[in-house]
DNA sequence: CCAATCCGATTGACGCGTCAATCATTCCCG
DNA sequence: CGGGAATGATTGACGCGTCAATCGGATTGG
């Protein structure tokens, strides 16, 4: 891959940091998801889609624009939209200019759910994430996360730049 | 707790930190999983199970002990073991002392896969995670992650203490 | 000894995510 | 025009994760 040949394996400390990091991130992800499911009956993915649509001009987006907005692969979005459509949160409508794909629109119900959910969403982030950290830790976390994303975009997947 | 402002919604900066954090963690998780799948044909979950079994006395564990070791729910482990058994990585054997459940053992094939995978696993962690960060960032990340875990254990799920 | 119960573990249903394959429409070149 | 290739999007298969229900052996109280 890179220039280097075989380099050293991570130290015990580095491995411990990795484990702590990945463990914490999965736990908080699950906790937020569980809280959102419990309080509002939606998943973080649902929330992201509703947010993107609610903020879009005319509250409608082409599938691919929506995929870019939430940073997902097409097929993932397609599956997710199918589930959300089944629940009445979004709908697909013919698009005048190019009938290869449909516009995705948020329903009245979807908009209602989105507005109701925002408070829960914010409260969960505050209670489980922000309140867990000092301001300095929060900054450090953001900085390190940005470094990881940049590094992944350079090293790993060129498409991972998202947004 | 006395601070009333703590009840307000997260600030824009706090939200941005959250988004950066969760985005980075999901991306790196996927990248590691993809690399491991690509190079060794296993998932991080497979690796964790194989590791726990390889390190266990006699290379065997009761299901519940294994669940504790990897920090998973029972049913998740049960499903995962079914898939791993199908692939010949582990096997279930009768347990002498209590035949309600079986011992989980690692097969020769599983042990082989585990040993082969370790190098890839370490290299991926080094390339995608450790190399992305300065030593100070790594430390800060570990510390913040630990704070999140502690906080979740206190606030969220009392059972989340895991391992 | 036998029922009630507890406990270890599995199962089924269903949502979620990825990959590869597929459709349908539009674009483009002859 | 007509017949590909490119593009927008969906589908199917399958692994993964959670919840609720269940199963069967172990315990225990009468």
TrEMBL record, chains A, B:
InterPro entries: HTH_MarR-typ (IPR000835), MarR/SlyA-like (IPR039422), WH-like_DNA-bd_sf (IPR036388), WH_DNA-bd_sf (IPR036390)
Stretches assigned to the HTH marR-type domain: 1-150
Gene3D superfamilies xref list: Winged helix-like DNA-binding domain superfamily/Winged helix DNA-binding domain
PANTHER family: MARR FAMILY REGULATORY PROTEIN, TRANSCRIPTIONAL REGULATOR, MARR FAMILY
Protein name as annotated: MarR family transcriptional regulator
